[in-house]
Design goal:
mainly beta
């Protein structure tokens, strides 16, 4: 409760401050090789584990190589201040407003992993901010402040589209899902290098924009003169894109200094267009660039607030029919977005502001009174919890922007210091039970699953002792091939056996990588360097481990890892770059050049058990909890109703796991029987087309047996079809008995309850389907003999499927209820409804061997139910007759 209150207070403080102040703004690849085949895998930097709660994905204390960090203006790497141990980046605040402007520190590009269930990804850093001039003139608007933004580096906005196009397709700087643009964009559309032959050449383009209106004067942005917000313009470079000049055309720019440029690190006094402008032609004289090689750029920049989400008319910047020609019609360049070899090149970043903050020691704001770690809940305005989970799986870059105004009316300080930047992952729930299975009986459902409390010593072997495939890297370097061991709770790796498929001794490293949340650590918990002889090698280790791990061996371009492709079981893993991947996913992404399999790695492991209790959920609601057995029987079910079951585990810490995978069970009377002509395995999918029918003949066992359920196997999810029932007419489907539309099946077996329809069947009948255009293929079993038929339309003749080459059975099945089974009444051996001496005589005859009982007679005679018909049963019957 105390922790919850603290979080609420932090949030309250953050949003309270946000109301008080404002910023016066308007708002190395490597490859693997199998034989002659290879695939490319991207490297990521190393990951380090911090503790059992957080996993550090990236961390930089600025002590080593910082070449990936880019600085501008007063940003420097310094030893003047640091959190740990000696270096930090400092946005220097020189006296007298000498550093007026906005200055950026750019991070390297980070490849973020995907997240597991319940996991959250955040960023953080440490800071010391000595900027007393945060509100020097006391007008309640921030003057010196800093902003933190990030960008998805692959999210390029310029693309060809027919949305609001001029003709055919046009170039658009916009997001299709937004039908416009977001805050913090800096996007470019460039021509290739073009040589202007001489004077008299003009750039011509059709332009359209729907951009935020200019502010109409000084917008009051700290550190710059700004008279426009979001902006578009056209630029030209004569040095290959290193520097740019602004092109002025026959449509003058609407303002001289756009905040959409300045916010994204562009210089003050960068002009631009704003407001609303429909398609119109704009020309630019290129005579000044005669004889020069140029690149022409169409640019768009948006500031940190107010975009399409605020105003649907802000649709962005459009360009079409780009040409360069002279008055004689000599054309040297053209592009119109209509396809073919499009010469235009998109670039830029869409910056997403995370928060802004400032350095008030009295507030106090984080870091204003000395070095402090900037934690979730601290931001003054914006992404309060530093949560970047929505960026999982993307390549991102961070930007720290320091904004200084042109004076020190609030005092002068040393500026902003940044250290110990990190991206980390908070772990989700502990592991859920696996292997949930069950059976449905008469008014009963039994469940069982893998026991997380199991303790013992076992050999874990996933290969089939056919380790024949050699996997190597194509380039120099080292990678890891490992087997995943899904152990829950503490364990000891006693021994490991590794197969050396190279045929000669090799030097490798064997290591264990512990599981942390849904991911596996990239630094070993244990490792040992060994020389492996050819064939199997046994290593005695004694490594004590936590829950779940990968045991792996190194391989290179010269030393192969051995793979058994005969029976993949899904336990093989590989670390080719900075992340663990399943070998199955690598094989599937290789275009057929690699196969799935299991590495030649085995282990003898002693498990101690996780000491959990289990919780059973039925149809999403709690059913039972607090028991340690890995099984459960539910006696509170009704027949012919389908139930969904899942199981979770509660650990000694009190944390409950997520639910396991869900299974469905349908209890049914013991008198229900299923008629199956197929063997349960679908070898191919079959479809007769929309409006056509298929049918299979079945035979009821009894008379007037109730039809309770229909089953079918389909290839793929979704779709719709009709189920049909017909009587038998001389060996063909006859009169229709019933039909019903079925919608939304899933791949595999499906069932539909028809017990309420009151359908009774005797002897031969036909079950079949009528298809729609959306119908998924039905499963077809070619491993059994079938006599299926099909019919074209409602009036066609029934024909054998085998005449079309489909030899086997359509995978549909009926389930029928044959009625109550006649059991026995204990003691009433002759089943006359009375217990008397005649029943005793029959029991004596059974004991003497003069008569052999039927099953029902044996059931009735064994009145004490000890499994033996003897004198004790006679005594019991006599006692009942005598009333004692």
């Amino acid at each position: 409760m105390i922790r919850k209150v603290i979080i609420i207070l932090v949030l309250f403080m953050a949003f309270s401050f946000a109301r008080e102040l404002n910023t016066a703004a308007n708002k190395n690849a490597s490859q693997i090789n199998a034989g002659q085949n290879n695939i490319t895998v991207i490297h990521n930097p190393a990951v380090q584990q911090s503790d059992r709660t957080d996993v550090i994905l990236y961390e930089d204390d600025f002590e080593g190589d910082v070449s990936g960090w880019q600085t501008e203006g007063p940003w420097i790497l310094t030893e003047e201040q640091s959190m740990s141990p000696t270096h930090s980046f400092n946005a220097v605040n020189n006296p007298g407003g000498a550093d007026e402007g906005s200055w950026n520190l750019y991070s390297p590009v980070y490849a973020l992993p995907e997240l597991g269930d319940g996991e959250v990804m955040r960023f953080g850093f440490s800071l010391f901010i000595d900027t007393p001039d945060f509100d020097g003139d006391g007008d309640n608007s921030l003057e010196d402040l800093y902003r933190v933004s990030l960008a998805d580096v692959d999210a390029l906005a310029w693309h060809a589209t027919n949305f609001n196009a001029f003709a055919g397709m046009s170039y658009w700087c916009g997001d299709e899902s937004l039908q416009g643009y977001s805050d913090g964009w800096l996007q470019f559309l460039d021509t290739p290098p073009i040589t202007v032959p001489g004077i008299g050449y003009e750039l011509s383009a059709q332009l359209k924009w729907g951009i935020e209106d200019p502010c109409g004067g000084d917008c009051g942005i700290a550190g710059a003169y700004i008279d426009g917000w979001d902006a578009a313009n056209v630029r030209i470079s004569t040095d290959g894109g290193t520097t740019w000049d602004f092109l002025n055309g026959d449509d003058p720019y609407d303002f001289t200094s756009g905040y959409g440029w300045f916010f994204n690190g562009e210089p003050e006094y960068t002009p631009g267009w704003g407001g609303q402008q429909d398609w119109h032609n704009v020309t630019f004289d290129l005579s000044a660039y005669s004889g020069e090689e140029v690149i022409i750029r169409f640019a768009f920049g948006s500031d940190p607030a107010y975009s399409t989400i605020d105003d649907a008319s802000l649709v962005g910047f459009f360009v079409d029919d780009i040409t360069i020609e002279n008055i004689m019609g000599d054309q040297i360049f053209a592009a119109n977005a209509d396809g073919g070899d499009d010469p235009m090149i998109a670039a830029g970043l869409a910056w997403i502001e995370q928060f802004y903050d400032y350095g008030d020691p009295a507030g106090p704001r984080p870091g204003a009174n000395g070095w402090e770690e900037y934690l979730p809940g601290y931001p003054y305005n914006g992404n309060v919890f530093l949560d970047i989970s929505d960026m999982a799986g993307k390549n991102i870059q961070f930007k720290f922007m320091m904004v200084y105004d042109g004076n020190d009316d609030g005092g002068s300080g040393d500026g902003l210091f940044i250290d110990d930047f990190k991206i980390y992952k908070e772990l989700g729930a502990p592991p859920a039970p696996t292997g949930l299975a069950g059976e449905a009986l008469d008014s009963q459902c039994n469940l069982w699953w893998d026991d997380m409390n199991y303790a013992g010593t076992d050999d874990y072997i996933y290969d089939s002792d056919q380790v024949t495939q050699l996997i190597t890297l194509t380039d120099a370097g080292e990678a890891w091939a490992g087997e995943r061991f899904d152990i829950v709770g503490s364990s000891t790796i006693n021994t490991v056996s590794v197969f050396n498929a190279n045929g000669f001794p090799v030097d490798v490293t064997v290591a264990a990588f512990e599981q942390v949340g849904a991911f596996y650590n990239l630094t070993p918990t244990y490792q040992t360097d060994v020389t492996l002889d050819a064939d199997w090698n046994d290593l005695t280790l004694g490594w004590d481990m936590g829950s779940g791990y990968i045991i792996a061996v190194t391989f290179t371009n010269e030393v192969a890892a051995g793979l058994d492709e005969s029976n993949p079981m899904g336990h093989s893993m590989v670390m080719l770059g900075g992340n663990w991947d399943t070998w199955q996913s690598v094989a599937e992404g290789s275009g057929g050049s690699l196969n799935d399999g299991e590495w030649g790695i085995r282990a003898n492991i002693t498990t101690l058990g996780a000491d959990v209790t289990y919780n059973v959920y039925r149809d999403g609601e709690p059913l039972a909890s607090g028991f340690s057995a890995a099984s459960y029987s539910d006696f509170t079910v009704e027949n012919n109703i389908t139930y969904e079951y899942a199981v979770s585990a509660t650990f000694p810490s009190g944390d409950e796991s997520d639910p396991s995978a869900v299974i469905e069970l349908t209890p049914q009377s013991s008198t229900i029987y299923e008629i199956a002509l197929d063997d349960g395995t679908s070898e191919l999918g079959i479809s007769m087309g929309s409006g056509n029918y298929m049918a299979v003949k079945f035979t009821a066992v009894g008379v007037d047996d109730d039809l309770v359920r229909l089953k079918w196997y389909q290839q793929g999810d979704g779709g719709a079809f009709y189920f049909y029932l017909w009587n038998d007419d001389a060996g063909l489907p006859g009169a229709e008995l019933w039909h019903h539309i079925i919608v939304g099946g899933v791949e595999g077996w499906n069932s539909y309850d028809v017990s309420a329809e009151g359908i009774q069947l005797t002897g031969d009948f036909w079950l079949g389907v009528k298809e729609f255009s959306s119908t998924q293929d039905f499963g077809f079993d070619t491993g059994s003999n079938g006599m299926g038929y099909w019919r074209q339309g409602g009036n066609g003749d029934w024909q054998l499927l085998s005449d079309l080459g489909f030899d086997g059975n359509l995978m549909v099945r009926p389930l029928l209820d044959g009625g109550e089974v006649q059991g026995c009444t204990l003691g009433d051996v002759n089943a006359d409804g009375v217990l008397d001496v005649l029943d005793i005589v029959r029991v004596v005859n059974f004991i003497m061997g003069s008569e052999t009982p039927t099953d029902d007679e044996a059931c009735a005679a064994d009145i004490n139910e000890d499994g033996v018909i003897d004198v004790l049963d006679i005594v019991n019957i006599v006692n009942i007759i005598m009333g004692s």
